[in-house]
Amino acid sequence: MDWLTIGLFLLLAVFGWLNIYGASYTFDQTSIFDFSNRAGKQFTWLMGSLLLGTVLLMIDYKTYDVLTYIAYGAMLLLLLATPFLARDIKGSMSWISLGPVSLQPAEFAKCVVALTIAKYMGRYDYKIRTWHDLIVPFVLVGVPALIIMVLQKETGTALVFASFLLVFYRQGMSGYVLWMGVAAVALFIISIRFGGVPLPLGTGSVGILTCMLMLTVVEIYFICKEHYIRYQALIMTGSMIAVYAICLIVNIWIAVPFDWVAMGVVLALIGYNTFISLYWRKYFLLIVAAFTLFCIGYTHACDFVFQKVLQPHQRIRIEVLLGMKEDPAGAGYNVNQARIAIGSGRFFGKGYLNGTQTKLQFVPEQDTDFIFCTVGEEWGFVGSVAVLLVYLVFILRLIFIAERQRNMTTRIYAYAVAAIFLFHLTINVGMVLGLLPVIGIPLPFFSYGGSSLWGFTLLLFILLRLDAARMEQLN
Question: What confidence category does residue 219 fall into, taking pLDDT thresholds of 50, 70 and 90?
């Protein structure tokens, strides 16, 4: 048994429970075990998670492999039924009431999907050779994610499933897929943030021109990478600069639409790219050309998606994050108050139970999604860094567990667990610090809630059980 990982789990869970008490503490409250408040309730969930972890460790490791696909099918049925059984909580239809408690099935779905992906990709005959090999894994991940996002309207939880891309990459998926995702996000942000900013010269927008210049660099890079011809990069870059220089001269007399000129340059490069890829039969460049062409359309469609597809609360959060709007009393209130709370803690913090921002309830959701602001206010910079270092050690330990596995299924599952914890940590802390939009996902073992705590417990202790049997699995 990996007692170090269990010790890290207990350290995070207990310290998280203490901070939930600090976040929900009122001046007339005396006991941390008062079950009428959230700290007392979280203690019950914590004891339940310890019992759940013990049970998971006692189950034969083969059981998880045998029941994986059955659990996946049952999980899909439960996710589909949840919107019809759940009550509306702040626009989300993801919580099922079971008497005095409520459970969120989507939290447990992450564990089931991780096991399913591991079982499918861990087969002896499975390897990622072409994109066809990724169809089934993408479907296994995408179906529950779409159900959670569309039917349950729980965008934050659905986005967690994007962490499986790191698992696919570790197993052999091309890194270009990750770069495509990064490029899509970058183009969306630039086109939204600067799409309405006019150019100082000629006509057009700063956003569209910047996006086209980025795509120009991508095309030139891959053309030169695949077909190394001496001075090719200089010739193509010089030609592009000459085109823009001519446009600047013409702009003295006639206003030039520079964004359209930039688009024309990209289309010319796509045409050249297509020609040489067919001539030399290097079909990878065709994929690059198709992706660049898609990005042109995607860039011009971003405004429509932003205005017509995203919900109003999602739009305003993005606008506040990008500095397009100031809404300190509305969409930006949570983040502003969280940053004030963290900043007020300074270096050593105000002391446990002495936080003023949290005690006076200035920070909404301060014991759930914004629990990290309580850490910053009461424990200061030192305490916040200490918590992040413990998380770092915890995630590195999960990677170490993954690397020492002899069984491919367990290895993939371990990487999935590490990716999910890393995604939760990065998004939650980034959200509280105002570096990422508010999407509402819990901080592992810290945020109040039985569903999230038990979901993380399932992920971790199933891994510990499989890891404990790593030598037995070889027989």
Answer: confident
